[in-house]
Amino acid sequence: MMVAPAPDAAHADVSRTAVSIADVLAAQSRLDGTVVRTPVGQYPDIDRAAGTTPGTTVVVKHENQQRTGAFKARGATNLLLSMSDAERARGVVAYSTGNHAQGVAYAARLTGTACTIVMPDDPNPVKLRAVLDQGADVLLQGATFDDARAQATALAAASGARLVGAANEPAIIAGVGSLYLELFQQAPGLDVLVVPVGGGSGAAAAGLVASAVAPGTEVIGVQSAASPAAHDSWHAGTLLERANTTRAEGLAVGCGFEVTQALMRRHLADFVLVTDEQISTAQQLYLTGAHTVAEGAGAAALAAVLADPERFAGRRVGVVCTGGNASADELRRALGRADAPAPD
């Protein structure tokens, strides 16, 4: 099914919203001192779980240690720092299941910008509390990301505030690109990089940066099979909407977005799906094998590697733990996975 026209989805003018490696380099400079250069790590338990073939290694980029606990702080901060004083004076409105909300709220507090966040009803309490702690106003609206998007769009139109989407925003993609510049500096020689996809800013940025600085690295996107809109849009070559029922909030998006889809079509080698159960298994491995808290979206890239060991056999694989803002219920579910790989 085609997506109905939407202000920040199907009707983006890609010709006016292109992102280049020069934009990413400018964003990296602009963000200096406002975001963390997060570490990378390699863990024997994760390497063993990824496959028995000698030489298979997994390098983890720990964006769960980023300010706000997720990579979204990079893009939102770059966007707000790029705005004029007059634009910031009108305030911003964003919609999110949580991590984009925290990123925008953090950037708004940093720049003294009034900020309203629309989140779906019954949000992750960890993420809601963090948004409120940053001083943003929060409105709960609807059951899904897409319901929140519609309400935020209407609110911005009525108030004159700047609507800050999580996908069709070149400055956000450029800011996220700083993550991948760091990764390729910290872990050169990656054969493949696996990136989780919700709206697609991360995978769009990863593909863009890889093509410029690591053209030999294959970039693969991954999404939950319970919310496959971005995956299906990429494979179909057109924007689609799909059921949106994943537990992984950062992947819970029901439609494709034109700007990120255009970049992903240009730069991704493949786009795969994993189940929510496989994501929970990867979360458990992060906890037990890397002493790392990963929320569902943050574990999706590792889940894809664990689900297809033949594909990654003997390769140097990069994965990004994109966020660590997991609720207590989510962590209990992950630790209860009976079929999760256990350390030897």
Structure description:
By secondary structure, the chain is of the alpha/beta class. The chain has two domains: 14-70 and 170-335, Rossmann fold, CATH 3.40.50.1100; 72-164, Rossmann fold (3-Layer(aba) Sandwich), CATH 3.40.50.1100. The chain has helices at residues 21-31, 44-50, 72-82, 85-89, 99-111, 125-133, 145-159, 170-186, 201-213, 229-236, 258-267, 276-289, 296-307, 309-312, 328-335; strands at residues 40-42, 57-62, 92-95, 115-119, 137-140, 162-164, 192-196, 218-224, 270-274, 316-321. The strands form two sheets. Strands 1-2-10-7-8-9 form a six-stranded mixed sheet, sandwiched between helices. Helix 9 (201-213) runs parallel beside helix 11 and helix 12 (276-289) crosses helix 13. The termini are far apart. 57% of the residues are buried.
In short:
With 344 residues, the chain is of the alpha/beta class. Helices cover 46% and strands 14% of the residues.
